[in-house]
Amino acid sequence: MIYLLFPFNTMLNFNNMHPERFLKHLIKPIFNTLRTRQILNVNPTKQPVQHEAASIKICVYDYNNNSIKEIELEEVGHLIEFKKNNNVSWINIDGLKKSKIEEICSEFNIHPLIVEDILSKGQRPKMDEIDNIQYCLLNMLYFNDEHCSVEVEQISIVLGVNFVITFQEDPERDVFNVLREKLKIQQTKLRQKGADYLCYSLLDLIVDHYYVVMEKLGEKIELLEEEIIKSADVHSLARINNFRKEFIVLRRNVIPVRDLVNGFIKSESNLLDESVKKYFKDIYDHIIQANDLVDNYRDMVNNLQELYISKVNLKLNEVMKVIAVVTCFLAPATVIGGIFGMNFEVIPFAHSHWAFYFTVFFMLVIVPVSMFIIFKKRKWF
Fold first, then answer.
1. Phi, psi at residue 167, to the nearest 5°?
2. Distances, alpha carbon 291 to alpha carbons 104, 134, 261, 264, 373, in Å
3. Rounded to whole angstroms, how far apart are CA atoms 146 and 165?
4. Which of 22, 112, 125, 187 could make an S-S bridge to 256, C-beta 3.0–4.6 Å?
5. How far is CA 84 from CA 45, 79, 89, 167, in A?
6. What counts of helices (H) and strands (E) characterise the chain?
7. Do 162 and 90 contact (CB within 8 A), yes or no?
């Protein structure tokens, strides 16, 4: 039939088609190797490909103890007026567009090295202090329930005299809504204190959200543990492997934040009041606890792998036990059948009318039942 469909000079050589190349597209892989490549492909000497936002959204919260103004700006040039007043200004930038970011940083005299860090992707969380500007970079974490993975959004926070500028990649989501609601309440500590306390509040929300992500991962791990105890298969092993990758993401983003917060505590900058540094110590305690929790969850995942191996070995032992018992039950029958199958001229009961029925009954009933009673008394099964 194939010869009728294809001309002779264009016939397909099916021996060289390598069907495994096509099967991988038909069968969904259970081990996500692409995720491994995304996690481990970190090269600080190579500039990652970053898609620039088509536009940016500028939202300003200008406030003091008595009043607050929430303004959405379209032009970068209007930001300079918030630098000159005596209020505290929180300027939130959603979306990273190089030309706009450079223009904003130029208005607030932010060093080019900080601008480069803001526009770079995949950086390690860190804190720098350049030209009376304090800059910190860390990642906001989210949990994707559909893919059971940890998603990362890079956040840059610039602290200056009476202003805080935050740069976000994703305009659709963040964890700062609680802070926006607090700003609307008069006589709160946030409204009474300066920009350094606002910076503390932003960092505190990001770190607290780490616990939300870890709790969701913990729930998934508990469900996986129950699944492995009930029935362990290759899908369970794949999920364990995927969880181990997600905890690599967690460790990479959570552990360096400890040094970042410690940098604020030890800083001698005039931008940070001594009374506010005490609050940064509270974040430091939270991030230490988060680090311990990440290690605990990682140990749980490793224990799940050991549980999976034990479960598989136990299942294999059960199978081998059944095979061994069946083999033992059939061994006497095999021996007796082999003896009576020999080609001797004189064999006992060879010419007896009931010899065949008695032999079969003895091989299949009497001997197996006797062996079963003996095994049961010895508690072999």
1. -115, 125
2. 35, 24, 13, 19, 57
3. 32
4. 125
5. 39, 10, 10, 21
6. 14, 7
7. no
Give the integer Cα–Cα distance in Å for 95 and 10: 53
Q: What percent of the chain lies above the pLDDT cut of 90?
A: 29
**Distance between CA 105 and CA 102 in Å, rounded?**
5
Distance CA 148, CA 243 (A): 8
Instruction: Summarize pLDDT for 101-158 with one digit per residue, the tens.
Output: 999 999 888 999 999 999 888 888 999 999 889 999 999 999 988 888 899 999 999 9
Q: Which residues, including other chains, have CB under 8 Å from residue 256's CB and lie 6 or more apart?
A: 124, 125, 126, 138
Domains of the chain by start residue, with CATH: 57-312 (3.30.460.20), 318-377 (no CATH)
Report if pTM > 0.90. no
Radius of gyration of the chain (CA): 35
For residue 224, which phi and psi values (nearest 5 degrees)? Answer: -65, -35
Q: Convert the pLDDT of each residue in 295-351 to its tens digit.
A: 999 899 889 888 888 888 888 888 888 888 888 877 877 877 787 777 777 777 767
Cross-strand partners of 89? 62, 163
Phi-psi region of 349 (alpha: psi -120 to 50; beta: other; left: phi over 0): left
Tokens 């298969």 belong to which residue? 233
Percent of the residues in the chain that have a pLDDT greater than 70, as a whole number: 86
SS3 154: strand
Give the Cα separation of 89 and 163 in Å (integer).
5
Q: Using one digit for the tens of pLDDT, what is the confidence trace for 171-199?
A: 788 889 999 999 988 888 898 899 999 99
**Residues contacting residue 372 through CB under 8 Å, at least 6 positions apart:** 329
The phi, psi pair for 94, rounded to 5°, reads -100, 120
